[in-house]
Automatic annotation (TrEMBL):
The keyword Cytoplasm does not apply. The keyword Membrane applies. Keywords: ATP-binding, Cell inner membrane, Cell membrane, Membrane, Nucleotide-binding, Translocase, Transport. One of its GO terms (molecular function) is ATP hydrolysis activity. This is Putative ABC transport system ATP-binding protein. It comes from the Bacteria.
Length: 241
């Protein structure tokens, strides 16, 4: 079954200066378990597309089904619930709360989901262990390296058990060795069944996905499957360099 199903999805901005067609009739299915790299030049519609499939924005035309739910039928609360249950977000700048330790940052989405405190702590611990940071749960973001902060952000994205990880340039702020390690974490999570959609401007990152979708002028210019490179080879190459 397709986890993501868009039909003629579009987003138009009406500005004083005229209409901007940010996304133009995009029909795209993403199967559960896939790993998609989204590429394309600046202004091609990548963020608009990610905001729509992340239920952070509404289309001006077309339809979107996420895990079988017709997203346009939901009100703001329904949208937030669906987002919280099905989607984990990972950003280039980690977006962690600076005064809160790793455990508190990871537990945050469960506060919104109404999970009790004890369960929150257990699940947050498990998610931190999953990304290799069990020992660092009490560290604040400032006390962690960039790669560790991104791991905390990934643990936060995973904590509600989402089917879909949406990542916007998740390796963009990291040195190349650390970026390779984060890429490997995404590949492992994908192998465990999490669907990944990742925006990148880096062709080397894109080659680690199973499928590459390239946008141009708000449309899908190219969409092909590929044999993904193994990020462990990249880690080895970066270590040797
Ligand atoms: P990308 O992520 O590929 O750089 P975007 O999705 O951000 O592209 O933008 C696609 C187009 O939509 C661009 O022409 C951009 O200027 C326009 N756009 C994006 N967001 C807005 C907005 N809030 N208001 C007006 N135009 C926008």
């Amino acid at each position: 079954m397709a986890l993501i199903e868009t039909r003629d999805l579009g987003r138009v901005y009406d500005l004083d200066a005229g209409r901007v067609v940010a996304l133009d009739h995009v029909s795209l299915d993403v199967d559960e378990g896939d790993f998609v790299a989204v590429m394309g030049p600046s202004g091609s519609g990548k963020s608009t597309f990610m905001n729509l499939i992340g239920c952070l924005d509404r289309p001006t035309h077309g339809t979107y089904r996420l895990a079988g739910t017709a997203v346009e039928t939901l009100d703001a609360n329904g949208l937030a619930r669906l987002r919280n249950r099905e989607i984990g977000f990972v950003f280039q700048q980690f977006n962690l709360l600076p005064r809160v330790d790793a455990l508190g940052n990871v537990a945050l989405p469960m506060v919104y989901a109404g999970v009790d405190r004890r369960t929150r702590r257990e699940k947050a611990h498990a998610a931190l262990a999953r990304v290799g940071l069990a020992e660092r749960w009490h560290h604040r973001p400032m006390q962690l390296s960039g790669g560790q902060q991104q791991r905390v952000a990934i643990a936060r994205a995973l904590v509600n058990g989402p089917k879909l990880l949406l990542a916007d340039e998740p390796t963009g702020a990291l040195d190349s060795r650390t970026a390779a390690e984060i890429l490997w974490l995404f590949q492992e999570l994908n192998r465990e069944g999490v669907t990944v959609v990742l925006v990148t401007h880096d062709a080397d990152v894109g080659r680690h996905a199973r499928r590459l979708v390239r946008f141009k002028d708000g449309r899908v210019l190219e969409d092909h499957r590929q044999t993904p490179l193994d990020a462990r080879d990249l880690i080895a190459a970066e270590s040797a360099a």
